[in-house]
Structure formats: C-alpha cells, structure tokens
Design a protein that fits this description.
six-stranded mixed β-sheet, 6 helices, TIGR00282 family metallophosphoesterase
Length: 259
C-alpha cells in the first residue's frame, strides 16, 4: 500500500498548498492512505475543529500533533470527538486523547503512533518507553505501523529509527520544518527520514515572516511573530509498505516549491 505523510502544515498558506497538490499526488502515487502533522495548522499554533474537519473532508485519514498540541482550546473537543486526531503518547497519562490509533483503509488495518522527543523539548516521558508500551497493543491488531516522532534532535530521531527497525513500517521525523535528505529503508524493513519538512510559505523562516525573524536575531529585541504568505512549498514522503508483512519497500521524498 502507498501512504502519504505530509510534514508540519503551517497556517492557511500550508493548508491551501496541501489542498492544491493533494489531487495530483493522489493520482501520481496511487495513494491508499494520507497522514498529516497538523500541530501548526491553525495560524501556526495548534489545530481548530473546523480545520480538522476540512482535512478529513479532503481525504486525510489521521492527523498527528506535537509540542503545540494544547495551543488551541479546540483540541480538547477534537480529541473527544475524533480518535483519528492523536497527540504524543508520551505526554502525561492524565492528558486527554490517545497517542495512537488503528484505522482500516481499503481493507487493511494501519496503526499510527505519535511520539514527542525529549532533547531540547518541553518535559515529557521517554518516547522509547512509550513506543514499547503502545506497540504491545498495536501489534495485536496490525503489522503496518507508522510512527511520527516530533523531535528537535536528529540523533534522537535516528536512535528511534534503529530502536524500532523491523518492528514498525516507518519512523518519520517532524518538528524542525526543514526537510532532510536521509530517507532510507533500514536493514530490517523500517522506512526512515529524520524530518519530513514543512508545508507552508516558501520564502519564510520555518513558515514565519522572514524579516521579523532576521530582525530578532540581529537586534536580540522581542518581536511578535507572524506567519509568512505568498509562494508555498509542500514537503512529504510516500511510503510503499507490504501490507502482509508491515515492511517498507521504499520511501520517496516529495518537495514541491511554488516559486
């Protein structure tokens, strides 16, 4: 089966780019499933109920989150309303929502697991321990499992890739908004990339107005961030997974720039 994973969708610019290019990607790659990281979808901060519904109407199967999961109050309603929106599994157990979901796509059961990194990030439980815990339940339902590790450090992401090699179909990194060129299938059949990248404004700094960010670095004075607009980019990967074994055959990096 073919699974499209779209990197952090940032604001209206990113959402519109995703909607524009999805039909072409669906046709070109014969997609069976679509997963997006939506933690920046609502003007760069969290996710709203309306935006989540727009994603699902467009054909998205699962939305993952990250460290901005609680930035919009709608998320509490969303997590109660739709189990296909998942938050990092290694947040406190008392937090609302779930860190994984299994959905059926074209007769195939697919598990999606969301994790948050610890290095240079806000405090959270070990993503490695959470992965072990969640996989114990997911493996009873399916061997096709996609992991979104929302983390800062490439070393932590790579360690997770090797930790889960042969046990999940793919480990894809999100959060840094910069697409890496290290996509590969690890020896035991797990597809890996350190960061899928960002879907948002092309002429920006991580989706934010570049002048504001540059001025902040130059002057070291506080600046109110604002999202950039204009030309967009879409970063994603397409995973080709053997649904009978859960092993990946390939991972293809997608980088579309509307320049």
């Amino acid at each position: 089966m073919k699974i499209l994973f779209v990197g952090d969708i940032v604001g209206a610019c990113g959402r519109e780019a995703f909607y524009r290019h999805l039909p072409g990607l669906r046709q070109e790659h014969a997609l069976d499933m679509i997963v997006v990281n939506g933690e920046n979808a609502a003007h760069g901060r969290g996710l709203t109920l309306n935006i989540s519904e727009e994603f699902f109407e467009a054909g998205v199967d699962v939305i993952t989150m990250g460290n901005h999961v609680w930035d919009n109050k709608d998320i509490f309603q969303i997590l109660d309303y739709n189990p296909r929106v998942i938050r990092p599994a290694n947040l406190l157990a008392c937090n609302p929502g779930c860190g994984s979901v299994v959905c059926e796509v074209g007769g195939v059961r697919v598990g999606v697991l969301n994790l948050l990194g610890q290095v240079f990030m806000d405090p959270c439980d070990s993503p490695f321990a959470a992965a072990e815990r969640e996989l114990e339940a997911l493996k009873k339902q399916t061997d096709v499992i996609l992991v979104d590790l929302h983390a800062e450090a490439t070393s932590e992401k790579m360690a997770m890739g090797w930790f889960l090699d042969g046990r999940v179909s793919a480990v894809v990194g999100t959060h840094t908004h910069i697409q890496t060129a290290d996509e590969k299938v690890l020896p035991k059949g797990t597809a890996y990339i350190s960061d899928v990248g960002m879907t948002g404004a092309y002429y920006s700094v991580l989706g934010t107005d570049r002048k504001i960010v540059v001025d902040r670095f130059v002057t070291r004075l506080p600046q109110k961030f604002a999202l950039a607009d204009g030309a967009a980019q879409l970063n994603a990967v397409v995973l080709d997974v053997d649904e009978t074994t859960g092993k990946s055959r390939s991972i293809v990096r997608i980088a579309i720039a509307e320049t």
